[in-house]
Amino acid sequence: MTSWDSKALSFINQTSRWDKEKHIGSFLTFSINLLRTLLHANITLQIEFQDEFTARVKNAYPEYLEDMVLDPEPIKKMLYSNAFKTIYWPAIPPPNHNVLKDLLQAFSSSVIIPLHTEPANSMILLGWSEPVEMTAAFQECIETMRIRLKEIITHSQQHSHFQRVAARFSAIMHAMPHAIIFINNDGYSGWVNQPAAELLELSGAGEQLPAILSDAMMQLRSRATNAEEIYQEAMQLFSSPANVITNWEWKFDYPTEKKYNVICMPVSSQQVSGRLWIFEAV
Prior knowledge:
Structural class: alpha+beta
Oligomer: single chain
Strand order of the largest sheet: 3-2-1-6-5-4
CATH topology of the largest domain: Beta-Lactamase
Order of helices and strands: HHEEEHEHEEHEEHEHHEEE
């Protein structure tokens, strides 16, 4: 096995372990730093095309290049003229033929790796102070790393998207006046908003173990003045094919007299399977 084969395999192995063991938020930064280490590059960075007017440098080494703003149009023209294939420069083109001259003025060789990953396309720039012989084995190594980098960026983008969706969902659920409880069928995860945390006398809103939620729900039911009626309704609920109940009254007289209209229904999708409870004070 040649040294370039070893470097490509090492990049795949190390990023695969990071994917399983470390925090996804720093996955891309780690991967670009690993590129620099394995390829002995003197400059590594990502150029992200944020909109038609802005390209921004990310994950940069040297660090002073971080967040540098570039004009995306000439860079995109260069990438499109090369059919979005990797660009190999054993010798850096002269400034009048080099749209990246501001980044590469002190370097001898460079590789530009376009990464076509919707919705935010980007590219990776590598540079060396000394000339690099870009053999067929070297280029094969780069192309293998490119495939893995595209997977990493796609994974990171998906993670960021899901984080935004989760933050939106959490903000909406916490703003609702009803007590909302979700217990996942996996036995490991559950969730409550702030009114539900107060109703169940939990320490706080957010993620909770299903065992804790089930115990709190049982204690809540035992405090109800119509606990026996609730129990009978529950037996019918869980034996019913529809497995849904609405307009279910839970009544309390301690610490204050209060009545809740309760809805209980299954929730099922490709990602989630569990039961949703909604307590509306009436």
